Amino acid sequence: MELNNNAYYAGGVKLVDVAKEFGTPVYVYNADSIISQYKRLKNAFNPIDIKIKYACKALNNSAILRLLKNEGSGLDTVSINEVKLGLRAGFKPNEIIFTPNCVGIDEIKEAVNLGVHINIDNISILEQFGAIYGNTVSCCIRLNPHIMAGGNSKISTGHIDSKFGISIYQLRHVVRVVKSNNMHINGLHMHTGSDILDAGVFLQGAEILFDCAKDFPDLSFIDFGSGFKVAYKENDITTDIEELGQLLGTRFTTFCKEYGRELELWFEPGKFLVSEAGYFLVKSNVIKQTTATVFVGVDSGLNHLIRPMLYDSFHEIVNISNPDGKQRIYTVVGNICETDTFGWDRKLNEVHEGDFLCFKNAGAYGITMASNYNARQKPAEVLIYQGKTYLIRKRETLEDMILNEVNINL
Ligand SMILES: *Cc1c(COP(=O)(O)O)cnc(C)c1O
Asked: Could you read off the pLDDT tens digit of each residue along the chain, which spans 410 residues?
C-alpha cells in the first residue's frame, strides 16, 4: 500500500475507490504482491528448482488459486473439499498434496481416487492405508520433529503436546508398519507451525528429516511445510528467505548426494504468499467516547476477521479516508455482540463516522475463517490485477445464508 498525493493505493488502484465501488466490508487482494512473493521464494533457492505447494486454507478463492497455478505453483490442501477446489481451478492431481489431520480413512480413500499425493499424519491411518493399498499407492509421512517453533503456542505445531504429525520417537514403529505392508513412501514432511523466526530452526528440522530419510529408500521429495514469518508491524523481524534459501539449499544438495539420488524440495507457504497482498476495508459506523477510550465501531467484526480475537494477531489499521488528518488514539471494535476488539490504542488519523479504515495483512486466514455469526453475511472479495479491479466473490445475501434451511410446517 502506497501513499500518493494524499491517497492510498495498492496495485495502482485507489483503495477508497474500491470501498466506494464495491461497498464495505470488502477483502481486496493485490495480485502483483502474491506473484512477487512467489517469485521471491523461488529465486531464494536458485539453482535448486523448489516446488511450491500453496497452502490454500489461507485464502481459497478460485481466482487466487488460478493466479498461483499460472505461476507454476502446486497446492497444499487439508480437506477433501480443498482438493476439489484445487482440481476445479485446474491443478493436476499430482500437483496437489493432501495433508489432513484427524480425518477418517474414507476421506483419504476419496483423495486417493482423485489421484493426489497423500500425506499421512498418524500411525493408525498409516496401518489402514498400508493394509488397503500395500505398495500400489505411494504416500508421504508427516513427522513431528518436536522443535519448538512459532510465535505463540496456539499456532506452533511441532511441540510435544501437538496433535500434528507422527513423533520422530515413533520412527521404529513407523518403519515396522511400512515394511510389514510393503508400502512405498515417496515423501517425508514436516510443518512446525506458523511464524518460525529463523533459518536455524528450519535447518534443525531439516537435519532430523534427513536423518529419518535413511529408513525410506523410495523417496522422491522432502516437504518442509511452512512457517515463514511475515511482518505485521513496521520493523517486525521476518524470516530471511534469501538466507534460508542459501543455507538449506546447500545442505539439501549434499543430502541428496548422501542419499544417492536427486530429490525434490517442497514448501507449503500460505501466509508468506498472500498475507501482505490482502487489505480488509471497513467503514467506521460510530465514534463512541467512553470514560476510558474513544471507540471506533466499524461495519464488521470477529465474524469477518477473527485473527486478533482468536490468537492475538496484530493487524495494522489505517484511516484511508483521511491520510493527513491529525493523529489520535482509538480503540477499534466490531459490531458483533461479543467483545470483538480489533486493536486497542491505535494511532489513527482522525476518524469521522463514514470514513473507510483498512486492515493490513488481511490476505491470509481472513475470509477463509469468516462466519455468519449474528446473521451477518460474509464480505465480498475483489482482486486487483494488472491495474484493474475484479469482483471475485459477491457479498453474501440473506437468501444465501438460509439456502440450506429446511422449512417445516409448525
Ligand atoms: C496451514 C498449513 C500451512 C501454511 O502455513 P502458513 O503459516 O500460512 O504458511 C502449510 N502446511 C500445512 C500442512 C498447513 O496445515
From this structure: 999 999 999 999 999 999 999 999 999 999 999 999 999 999 999 999 999 999 999 999 999 999 999 999 999 999 999 999 999 999 999 999 999 999 999 999 999 999 999 999 999 999 999 999 999 999 999 999 887 655 555 555 666 777 889 999 999 999 999 999 999 999 999 987 655 667 888 888 899 999 999 999 999 999 999 988 888 888 888 888 999 999 999 999 999 999 999 999 999 999 999 999 999 999 999 999 999 999 999 999 999 999 999 999 999 999 999 999 999 999 999 999 999 999 999 999 999 999 999 999 999 999 999 999 999 999 999 999 999 999 999 999 999 999 999 999 99
Residue nearest to atom 2 of ligand 1 (CA): 55
If phi over 0 gives left and psi between -120 and 50 gives alpha, with beta otherwise, what is residue 386?
left
CA of residue 225 to ligand 1 center, whole Å: 6
Beta bridge partners of residue 393, listed in sequence order: 381
- The 10 Å Cβ neighbour count of residue 284 is 22
- The answer to whether the Cα torsion of 59, 167, 171, 192 is positive or negative is positive
CA of residue 410 to ligand 1 center, whole Å: 46
Note if 358 is an active site residue: no
Specify the ligand 1 atom closest to the Cα of 273.
9
Beta bridge partners of 267: 52
Q: Is 193 in the pocket of ligand 1 (CB under 6 A)?
A: no
CB of residue 225 inside a 6 A radius of ligand 1: yes
Cα separation, 315 vs 360, in Å, equals 6
Distance 239 CA to ligand 1 centre (A): 15
